[in-house]
Every structure is written in structure tokens, then in C-alpha cells.
Fold this sequence. Notes:
Blueprint: H1 8-23, E1 28-29, H2 31-40, H3 45-52, H4 57-69, E2 85-86, H5 88-103, H6 111-120, H7 124-132, H8 137-148, H9 164-168, E3 169-171, H10 172-177, H11 188-198, E4 206-209, H12 216-229, E5 240-244, H13 246-250, H14 258-272, E6 277-282, H15 299-309, E7 313-318, H16 320-327, H17 331-334, E8 338-341, H18 347-365, H19 371-384
Parallel strand pairs: 1-2, 4-7, 4-8, 5-6, 6-7
Antiparallel strand pairs: 3-5
Amino acid sequence: MSQNQYTQKSMEAIQRAQALAGEHANQTLEQAHLLFALLEAPEGLIPQLLTRMGVQPDGLRQHALSEVERLPKVHGSVREEGKTYVSQEMDRALRTAAEAASRMKDEYISVEHLFLGLLQVPDRGIKALFDRFAVKESAFLQVLSQVRGAARVTSDSPEESYDALAKYGSDQTDLARKQKLDPVIGRDDEIRDVIRILSRKTKNNPVLIGEPGVGKTAIAEGLAQRIVRGDVPDNLKDRAIFSLDMGALIAGAKFRGEFEERLKAVLAEVKKAEGQILLFIDELHTIVGAGKTEGAMDAGNLLKPMLARGELHCIGATTLNEYRKYIEKDAALERRFQPVMVEEPTVEDTISILRGLKERYEVYHGVRITDQALIAAATLSARYISDR
């Protein structure tokens, strides 16, 4: 079986399984080695899927290691140094994994196919482990379909595209529901403007424009809190606001087209939600040219068609200088967005905001903040800190 058939993660798992066999002086590569290798990466796909199934991956991993330690060891001159043979059971699991990939119309054998191979043709020890931890093929396929959706393995790093929204964004409405966002005081006019633009049939993508630190992100958080309270028009009541992390999207995307694949996966999930997801992009100007390499599109060109067709509802945030420098120059992108100017709060507004946040800071720091201190902080800041 050619190594080119495997994804990067599945090759890493097989190589780790071989290394584990060497560490334990096992002459043959067994299913227990592969199971341990698949479970070893805490951020890996298989532990995440098992957790969703209600299975403890750490417990299963420890038992897989115990299974490895029970395997026969070969020492001395009998053992051929550096050579590990594939057992019949392991070979059968690898072939079954290849069949699973073919059946799912995937172009590469990924870690989920390897795990399916173990599930479908387990040896006696692995079958006992799966029975003990109630790991069922039907339950595994069910959670796999939730994470993968309609995506197919068409590259050697498909895990990047699984559950992309959760990986590269944060659900602001969920955070608001769990009361993990600071209350937004004031900014009613700006939030109303955003709601009005979002409620339009066309040209319904607001972009918040203001200097750094004036509270652009807070407006998006305020909208999320209003959605949770139901204090929005009916057409926005069931929406979720996802804040896209451009840094996470770009980080580690060293191969041509890797960033493009990640963003496409995010946009595919947004499209599948059929208008129920609002994408918040802080530092909107970074999408112009983001991820651009020779032969690949930048993020802006990936967003434009979806914005034009109304498949993507987006809230942007940027500074006035960056808006003029990057967004206005791209006429096709600029006409998709409607500006909402966000001015610095007045001293009176700042005092109101501080009064609203005071209790949280008192609890956190274990101190009492007087009203005179708030007024002094706001007025003295306005008087002496004029550069920000």
C-alpha cells in the first residue's frame, strides 16, 4: 500500500505505532500499537470524536498501552534491529481502512478510516477493549458525520476542514448565553444601525469603523447579547454570531492553498447554515491579501461571491485609515459593506459604562470602587490622555 495514499496525520500515527513497537521490543506491528498512536494526540480527531461519543479517550489509551505491554518481546540476536513486520490482523485493519476510504469516496486514507479499520476487524484484545468502553461503529459514524458534514478527504491534511467554525472562530451568542461577555452599556444607536443594516434584503453587511479601542468589538458582543435576550427583530432572533479568528486561520498555513482550504471549510459551514450564522470579522482589512500565495486566492476574493449571492452575512470592524487604504480601493468588496461610524464615547458615556462594569471589577479584584473614583478616572483620562 503506497504511503501517498495516507494523509499526513494517518502517516504520523502509523510511524508512531512503528516507533512504539520498537520501544517495546515487539517484532510485529499490531493493532494495539496503532490504537495507542491514534489516541495519543490529545488535540487529535479520534480523541475528540470519542469524547463526543461519551467515551473517555485517556482511559482507552491507557488500556491500549497495557495491551501493547502484554505483547511478546524479542531481544538479542533473534531480533532484527530496526525491522518491524506487519501482523496479519494489522494488515487486515489497514486494508479495511482503505476500503472504508473508497466507500466514503475519499481520495486519501485518514485517521478516521484507520480507526474504522480497527472497529470493523479488531483482533481479540482490541475487540475486548472496544466492548469494555462501549465503542460502537454506528455511534462513531454518527459523530463523524456531525464533524465532517458533507466534506470529503481530497487533500493530505483534511482535519483542517473538520468542524472549521469551532476551530477558527468563537460563538459569541453562546458566550452571551453563558454570561461570559461583559455587559455592553450605551452604544444603542450603533447597535440599532447594525440591526437595521442586517435586516435589509441587499447591502446587508455592516462594517464598524472607528479608532482602536473605541468599542467596535463590544458592539458585536452587544448584538449577541440582544439576540440571546430576544431583543431583536424576528429575522435575527435565531441567528448565531461567530467571531472569525484570522490569526488562527493563517497560523501554520505554510503550504500553497492551505489557508484557502481552511477558509473554504469555514465558508462551507456558514453556507450550510442557510443564513443562520453571522460572521464577525475583526480587523476586516486583513482579509485583503490574507493567505495570498502564488496560484492561490486571497480571503477577500473568496468572500466576494458569497457576499454577492447573499449566502454570507458578515459584520466587519476596522479603523478609518485601514478602511480607506484597503477596503475602499477594492470597489467590489467596498460595495458589499455598509459603514457604521463608531466614535469615541463622551466623558458622560464613559462614566455610565464604568458604572455598569464596576461591580464585576469589584468582585474580581476584591476591592470597592467609589463613584468619585470613576468620575475622576474618566475626566482626567479625557483631559490628559489625548493620544488614545
